[in-house]
From TrEMBL:
It comes from Rariglobus hedericola. Pfam families: LacI, Peripla_BP_3. SMART domains: HTH_LACI. CDD domains: HTH_LacI. Residues 7-61 form the HTH lacI-type domain. The keyword Transcription regulation applies. The keyword Transferase does not apply. One of its GO terms (molecular function) is transcription cis-regulatory region binding. This is LacI family transcriptional regulator. Keywords: DNA-binding, Transcription, Transcription regulation. InterPro entries: HTH_LacI, LacI/GalR-like_sensor, Lambda_DNA-bd_dom_sf, Peripla_BP_I.
């Protein structure tokens, strides 16, 4: 007895009285196909018992990968420069873009920057500019402020990936550093070196922009090691050496080490003639590079940029547009950097 013939996209096309390309796009939720048409074709495909052929999909992917990457189009880097956030001057963000440009070229794309403030445009106008330049895929730079709402942007017209946690609405696919894991690892490294009174000093805006992941990693590790600690995190702007708040906290709780988001924290300590690691240990779980003396976790920002483009191009190949029903997060772990701001403490 012969096995039943596999239902093909051509069979669905005949039944739906459309061409096969329309069926392919509808099954991939492509925004170019009206919602009602997509729903009708998908319902018909289910009724006919259609199932994608994984071997054909794999073959198509293989053939696509074998082709030389000729020019296919332009990806947009959507950003806004403000007084609070000059993104080009932030090493993490600049590296995202550099890596994105490199990876895009291997896929046959180039990346064009659309900076709202530089161009003097709003979000709706930015979308119109992107469309006029043939941009179907958007890489969204971290925003100047935490809890940013960008629902006014016509996401349904684009495939889009965002970096970090500054945008809370809508929920797009996200590429981010594994900040929780980085802080947990930093705590483990400090504990292994004999530090016991480990403080957490972060700018409150930095903490908020990262969705409190650094703080969460610190509190989890501390709870496991010393659940009765009396030292609260110091989360504000008062570690500015000109402000007294940090020093009041420091003098009251007498930490022997500090985890900080400020990679220039040694300068703060020097205002009181304190040196790391002789007087106190310091480490940063969010280093942009390993060029300085600070110990901590170096975020792999180059890898984030590469992954973001791979993810975005894959979305475009699938015809995926708009706000996803189930947003995905890709977290990239950094690498521990010993630096010169920690030492091994003698055992009591």
């Amino acid at each position: 007895m012969k096995p039943p013939r596999r239902v093909t996209q051509q069979d669905i096309a005949r039944a739906a009285k459309v061409n096969r390309a329309t069926v392919s796009l509808a099954l991939r939720e492509h925004a170019s196909i009206p919602v009602t048409t997509r729903a009708r074709i998908q319902k018909l495909a289910k009724k006919l018992g259609y199932q994608p052929d994984p071997m054909l999909s794999a073959l198509a992917t293989y053939r696509h990968g074998r082709r030389p990457a000729g020019f296919r189009g332009t990806l947009g880097w959507l950003a806004q420069t403000t007084k609070e956030l000059a993104w080009r001057e932030i090493p993490h963000f600049a590296t995202y873009l550099t890596a994105a440009c490199e990876r895009a070229e291997t896929h046959g794309y180039r990346v064009e920057v659309i900076d709202l403030n530089d161009m003097g445009i709003n979000w709706q106008r930015a979308a119109a500019v992107a469309k006029s330049r043939g941009i179907d895929g958007i890489l969204l730079c971290p925003q100047p402020h935490a809890a940013t709402n960008l629902e006014q942007f016509p996401w349904q017209d684009f495939a889009a990936v965002t970096f970090g946690y500054t945008m809370i609405k809508p929920k797009l696919h996200r590429i981010a550093s594994a900040q929780y894991a980085a802080t947990f690892r930093t705590m483990q490294e400090l504990l292994a070196r004999g530090y016991r009174r480990i403080g957490f000093v972060f700018n409150h805006q930095h903490d908020e922009r990262t969705n409190h992941h650094y703080l969460a990693g610190y509190l989890t590790a501390r709870e496991l090691h010393d659940p009765h600690s009396d030292m609260p995190p110091c989360i504000d702007d008062s570690h500015d050496p000109a402000q007294p708040g940090f020093w009041r906290w420091f003098e009251r709780y007498q930490p022997d080490a500090i985890i900080t988001g400020d990679r220039h924290f040694e300068a703060v300590l020097r205002t009181r003639k304190l040196r790391a690691p002789d007087d106190i240990g310091i480490a940063c779980p969010g280093l942009a590079d390993t060029s300085g003396s600070m110990a901590g976790v170096c975020e792999d920002n180059h890898q984030l940029g590469l992954i973001a483009v791979d993810f975005l191009v894959s979305m475009m190949h699938r015809g995926e547009r708009g706000v996803p029903v189930h947003a995905q997060q890709v977290l990239v772990e950094g690498l521990w950097t010993p630096g010169r701001t920690l030492r091994s403490l003698p055992n009591d």
